[in-house]
Write a structure and sequence with these properties.
401 residues; mainly beta; four-stranded antiparallel sheet; 8% helix; elongated
Length: 401
């Protein structure tokens, strides 16, 4: 016999079973059963490189981005030193201004209108590095108005544009200037016109972390500065056998001189904008520069000269020449140097700063742009084309006076 139970009799049992869990039916969910998913909230701010990165590329810098809202404060440090950066106009992105120090721990803390973020990471330690081997002028040196800023590296630079971007020149009075690479290891900065007298110039080479070639990064930054003295410009007129010196535009001395006797290229004084490079008292001058070392050769000479101021790499000087005083102001009898009386040569020697301008006119032999500091031989438009960036250097914050 089949037992038939009325449906109504089952309803209370079902209801009682459903109610036995009280107000929290989740407690009775079998082990392993999935619950409702908790939606993930994306971060309000991201930092690149990410927290914990062990070998970040220093040339890629730091980027802090507000995914929601805007940034209110970003502080980055490397080894206890602040890392400068710039905030975008919409306050959504902050980027480090320069490349990062290699092999250094960096810490970033950022806050914004919708949240905050921190990150701590280490930049890679490169197997190969490059450094600045030399800067001319010397730190703190007072120089003439024609003086170039010459930066020499300890190895060839493949990515010259990257390195050039890291070379910041600050000035007490902003003037147009540009870099030009004379070769793979040397960059030269020159203003469009001579420096203003009294100018202060500071080089800040932010080269630490710059990638100059695959696997090669800048090892360190470099800072150097110099001051420009009075405008001292001398004009040597070879045809008139005369040298006139102007200081801050005013003629202060004029004297008869004797320049190269010509006849051959070797004995012809070069025309063009020369810069005073060095000076010595005395200087031994010989005919070795033209390959004459045999004392029996009539062209051979060896002389000790006083108050000698060098104006080219090919051996041209303004110096005392007591043996040619009678010809000074009348004839050109030298091997290419500018001969002057002992009194005038001593005065000029005492006044001269490296980088003073000596403009020589009246010969058919031009000074080569790479003969010493003959950089002013190159017109401004061509000079700029020698920049890896093909443009003048960006104006920067002024140097302290």
């Amino acid at each position: 016999m089949r037992l038939i139970v009325p449906l109504a009799a089952l309803v209370p049992a079902v209801l009682a079973s459903a109610a036995c869990g009280g107000d929290d039916p989740v407690r009775e969910r079998p082990a392993g059963a999935a619950g409702p998913a908790t939606p993930s909230v994306p971060p309000a701010i991201t930092v690149t490189p990410a927290d914990g990165t062990a070998a970040a590329r220093p040339d890629r810098g730091i980027v802090v981005t507000a995914l929601r809202g805007t940034l209110t404060r970003v502080a980055a440090r490397a080894g206890g030193r602040p890392v400068p950066g710039r905030l975008s106009a919409d306050r959504r992105v902050w980027r480090s201004r320069w490349t990062l120090r290699p092999g250094a721990v960096h810490a970033v803390a950022a806050t914004g209108t919708a949240g905050s973020a921190t990150a701590r990471f280490t930049t890679l330690r490169p197997a190969q590095t490059f450094r600045i081997a030399d800067v001319t002028p010397l730190p703190g040196e007072t120089v003439g108005v024609g003086m170039p800023l010459i930066v020499t590296f300890d190895r060839p630079i493949a990515d010259r544009a990257a390195v050039e971007r890291a070379l910041e020149v600050r000035m007490s009075r902003r003037v147009a200037g540009a870099w030009r690479w004379s070769d793979a290891r040397q960059a030269v900065f020159r203003p469009r016109r001579y420096w203003p007298a009294g100018q202060r110039v500071t080089l800040l080479a932010h080269t630490a972390g710059v990638r100059s070639a695959p696997g090669v990064f800048g090892a360190a930054d470099h800072v150097a500065g110099f001051r420009v003295g009075p405008s001292r410009i001398s004009v040597v007129d070879v045809r008139r056998h005369r040298m006139t010196v102007r200081v801050n535009g005013r003629p202060v001395r004029s004297a008869g001189i004797s320049a190269g006797k010509g006849g051959t290229r070797a004995y012809t004084t070069t025309s063009g904008v020369h810069l005073t490079m060095a000076k010595g008292d005395p200087v031994i001058m010989t005919s070795d520069w033209m390959g004459v070392t045999d004392r029996r050769d009539p062209r051979y000479y060896r002389k000790e000269v006083r108050h000698a101021v060098q104006i080219s790499a090919s051996g041209e000087y303004v110096h005392a020449a007591p043996w040619s005083v009678a010809q000074q102001g009348r004839a050109n009898v030298s091997h290419g140097c500018v001969n002057a009386s002992p009194e005038f040569a001593r005065w000029f020697y005492d006044q001269t700063l490296r980088g003073d301008v000596v403009l020589i006119t009246g010969t058919d032999r031009p000074l080569e742009w790479n003969n010493g500091w003959g950089h002013w031989q190159i017109p401004w438009t061509r000079w700029v084309m020698g920049s890896a960036l093909r443009k003048p250097a960006a104006a920067t914050e002024r140097a302290r006076t």
